[in-house]
Amino acid sequence: MADERRKLPALATIKVPMAQVCAAQIRDWLQAGQRGEALLMNGDDARPVRASDISVLVRSRQEAAQVRDALTLLEIPSVYLSNRDSVF
């Protein structure tokens, strides 16, 4: 078990890359939605995915900033909403 822990990267070193992966996935969904390839179903009805359908839940302001920065680099507008209550 101790050997396995040494092989794992420190959480701090993967937060920015994970925010970038998250932003890239959001970009891909939005682009697919524009092409009519990513759809949300509601019974028999379907419509393309759009930005207002997507939200990202983070644990801290720092993580929110990292996701926001990653979205900004991909020219994806975003908003930050905070309620100090925790869902955890």
TrEMBL record:
Its EC number is 3.1.11.5. InterPro entries: P-loop_NTPase. The keyword Hydrolase applies. Keywords: Exonuclease, Hydrolase, Nuclease. GO terms for molecular function: exodeoxyribonuclease V activity. This is Exonuclease V subunit beta. It comes from Escherichia coli.
